[in-house]
Backbone:
């Protein structure tokens, strides 16, 4: 799944998004509340908070390689590494 | 935060300093009743924060309760400095032999409070100090050691007062000094302090100001005086635009995007931090620019907050463009502010390149910030462009816009 | 050389576990040779670490752990607790206290400053960003992360004193770009009462051989510019001074404060116009624009060094270091 703000987009692969444990971890680490858990525990991307992303990479560190992508829309869709 | 005279007198009274048997009211009939109770000639005084009420007709003398009521009715409807009074004070007309001055203020360079006393009261103490310096006593006192009566005695004696007056005045000045310190005042003044025919002293007017930062620890006193938390008591009341600015700053607790002050120009300012804002505001005016507002960005505000501030300024009637400028930032992030102001333009349906006259914020995360500005073709500047030069460019673009 | 601090200065951070304090600690450890942050204090957090700095419940514990007196403390605790934290530092023998916290009532500040003077300690701030000796050490958030601070500050002959933290960096960056580095830059704080005024720092700069000129940032409110003018006149200072005065527009708006709490005008001497006149009368040049400062202070240093060849030699050395 992918959600887009004006400046930042986040893409999470479907398998990772269904992983309740990972969803919980992402919800916890993000300092600006871009991630939340739905009622069933799976991942939700909170669209209104996307542009608050501070590029801290904590969500990338918390997830398996490539499962989460933070995309800088203002920088030719550059993916944060 | 300034107190009304009736509040300042109450504070003085609570401190055990003699006051006249005055009454405060918002009702003309009650003013008459107070005058009747007093049973002698009275003075009716408008309760406003601005000075010059005597000249404006806000102080009137009455010989009878009927006169007192008529004067009160008139004064209650009389605007002074653009404000209707909070009420009137009905004060007995004391038979004063001599007017004295007693005050306490801070001395920022000595970093101590200072007691000031003069047997020449009833007029501006700065004027007395200039014209009759020998009639003004001053003394700094400790904030760590306990205050002792001799300190007030020295001040009063040094102003040329002796005899029984001296002994009566010592506890008054000492109590005033305690009131000042204990209530976090920035000014505590009794002027005039009257000596009556029988030789006793009474406070005829009082002026008190409390430090805003300390209001929280005097909630009890303020509550008892009826001072509402929402009352800012600033020199100028907040405008709806300024209140909207405060609401933007309250969106969340991240950083500051506030201290918005309204002006009537066409160039909106999204500026920061404290010193940078002062410098930039001066610079815009030096180049003939007309700012629509003053404001301060500080700390590391959220995108939502920066966006809210920019939208507020952009939506102000008469604003043609905004200039986004700060001194070199280390805590505030360039990219976050850039996102906020660009988003504000987009959400209002404007082209950021058109609406943002210039963006000059160098420092933390400037590489990311400048990428955002490039993407939206916004003119930006790094630290090699001075605050003054950025302000000049913003004014120039406003003038181009007006010409076209 | 420098004033107030050098590479050997040891200090603690009171309130070290707060968000801003954690960043500040990182910045100080990273800058220059790396500050000697020997401990932090947050009551109830004994045994933790912040970027490798041990956290204690009390200042006394930090000193016991260090095994020797500690020179300084950066205090960054909420306003209601600041006075107690500063008293604790001073009563434990700390001689230099940098207070970052803003919105502290004047009474508390006056008490801290008075205790400091009784104990022979010095306070910088409150409402300040601290002290930086370019390329050597910084104590406080001044200049921000080490990388950003290194961009703005470089070593050299100018002492910088500023009532605004941000403008300390803006002015130093302008000086650096013109090849004029800084001996020490001090953000003295924006409140009505502060621990150290311009005039109180002047003797230190006067005694520092590296310093050849002073640049100050000033604002309306208070009498410390008048105090500086008097100091300069009374002491026949060897150091030329260039001042920048912000907030000139405030003269038209009496009773309001902008920028910092200390800008409130409470008397006739407090206005920008009055201060500019006083500074000028004492021979202190007042710059209209920040970008004019390097040339003005450079010219003044050159002027003085014509009169004193020894000073010129030092100025030349400072000028050619980079």
Residues:
């Amino acid at each position: 799944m992918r959600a887009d703000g004006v400046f930042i987009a986040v893409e999470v692969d479907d398998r990772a998004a269904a992983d309740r444990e990972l969803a919980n971890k992402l919800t916890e680490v993000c300092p600006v509340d871009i991630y939340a858990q739905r009622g069933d525990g799976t991942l939700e991307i909170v669209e209104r908070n996307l542009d608050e992303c501070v590029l801290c990479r904590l969500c990338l560190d918390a997830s398996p390689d490539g499962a989460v992508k933070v995309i800088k829309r203002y920088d030719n869709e550059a993916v944060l590494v | 935060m300034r107190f009304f005279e009736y509040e300042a007198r109450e504070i003085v009274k609570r401190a055990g300093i003699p006051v006249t048997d005055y009454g405060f009211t918002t009702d003309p009939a009650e003013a008459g009743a107070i005058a009747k109770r007093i049973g002698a000639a009275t003075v009716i005084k408008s309760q406003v924060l601005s000075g010059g009420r005597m000249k404006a007709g806000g102080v009137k003398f009455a010989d009878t309760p009927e006169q007192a009521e008529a004067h009160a009715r008139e004064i209650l409807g009389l605007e002074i400095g653009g404000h209707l009074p909070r009420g009137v004070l009905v004060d007995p007309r004391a038979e004063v032999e001599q007017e004295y001055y007693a005050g306490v203020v801070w001395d920022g360079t000595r970093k101590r409070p200072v007691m000031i006393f003069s047997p020449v009261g009833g007029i501006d103490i700065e004027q007395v100090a200039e014209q009759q310096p020998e009639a003004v006593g001053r003394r700094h006192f400790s904030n760590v050691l306990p205050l002792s009566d001799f300190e007030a005695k020295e001040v009063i004696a040094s102003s040329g007062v002796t005899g029984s007056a001296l002994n009566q005045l010592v506890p008054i000045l000492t109590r005033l000094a305690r009131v000042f310190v204990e209530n976090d005042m920035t000014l505590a003044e009794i002027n005039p302090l009257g000596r009556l025919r029988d030789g006793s002293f009474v406070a005829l007017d009082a002026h008190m100001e409390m430090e805003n930062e300390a209001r929280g620890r005097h909630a009890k006193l303020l509550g008892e005086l009826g001072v509402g938390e929402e009352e800012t008591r600033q020199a100028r009341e907040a405008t709806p635009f300024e209140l909207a600015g405060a609401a933007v700053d309250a969106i969340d607790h991240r950083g500051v995007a506030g201290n918005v002050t309204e002006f009537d120009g066409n160039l909106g300012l999204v500026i920061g931090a404290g010193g940078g804002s002062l410098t930039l505001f001066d610079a815009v005016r030096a180049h003939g620019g007309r700012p629509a507002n003053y404001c301060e960005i500080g700390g590391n505000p959220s995108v939502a907050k920066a966006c809210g501030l920019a939208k507020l300024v952009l939506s102000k009637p008469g604003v043609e463009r905004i200039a986004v400028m700060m001194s070199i930032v280390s805590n505030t992030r360039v990219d976050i502010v850039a996102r906020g102001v660009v988003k504000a333009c987009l959400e209002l349906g404007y082209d950021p390149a058109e609406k943002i006259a210039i963006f000059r914020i160098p420092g933390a995360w400037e590489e990311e910030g400048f990428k955002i500005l490039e993407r939206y073709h916004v003119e930006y500047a790094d630290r090699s462009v001075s605050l003054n030069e950025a302000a000049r460019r913003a004014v120039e673009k406003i003038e181009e816009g007006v010409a076209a | 050389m420098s004033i107030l601090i050098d590479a050997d200065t040891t200090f603690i951070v009171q309130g070290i576990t707060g968000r801003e304090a954690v960043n500040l600690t990182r910045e100080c450890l990273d800058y220059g040779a790396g500050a000697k942050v020997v401990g932090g204090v947050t009551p109830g957090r004994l045994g933790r670490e912040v970027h490798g700095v041990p956290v204690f419940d009390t200042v006394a514990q930090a000193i016991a752990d260090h095994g020797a007196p500690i020179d300084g403390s950066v205090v960054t605790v909420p306003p209601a607790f600041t006075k107690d934290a500063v008293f604790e530092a001073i009563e434990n023998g700390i001689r230099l206290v940098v207070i970052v916290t803003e919105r502290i009532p004047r009474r508390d500040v006056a008490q801290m400053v008075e205790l400091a003077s009784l104990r022979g300690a010095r306070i910088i701030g409150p409402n300040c960003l601290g002290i930086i000796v370019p390329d050597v050490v910084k104590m406080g958030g001044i200049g921000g992360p080490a990388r950003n601070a290194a961009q703005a500050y470089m070593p050299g002959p100018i002492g910088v004193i500023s009532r605004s933290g941000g403008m300390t960096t803006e002015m130093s960056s302008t000086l650096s770009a013109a090849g004029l580095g800084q001996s020490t830059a001090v953000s003295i704080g924006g409140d009505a009462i502060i621990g150290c005024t311009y005039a109180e720092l002047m003797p230190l700069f006067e005694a520092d051989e590296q310093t050849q000129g002073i640049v100050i940032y000033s604002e309306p409110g208070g009498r410390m510019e008048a105090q500086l003018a008097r100091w300069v006149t009374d002491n026949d200072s060897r150091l030329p001074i260039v001042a920048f005065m912000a907030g000139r527009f405030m003269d038209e708006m009496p009773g309001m404060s902008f920028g910092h709490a200390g800008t409130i005008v409470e008397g006739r001497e407090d206005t920008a116009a009055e201060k500019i006149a006083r500074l000028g009368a004492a021979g202190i040049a007042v710059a209209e624009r920040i970008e004019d400062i390097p040339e003005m202070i450079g010219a003044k240093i050159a002027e003085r060094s014509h009169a004193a060849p020894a000073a010129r030699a030092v100025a030349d050395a400072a000028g050619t270091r980079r």
Chain A has a mean pLDDT of 95.
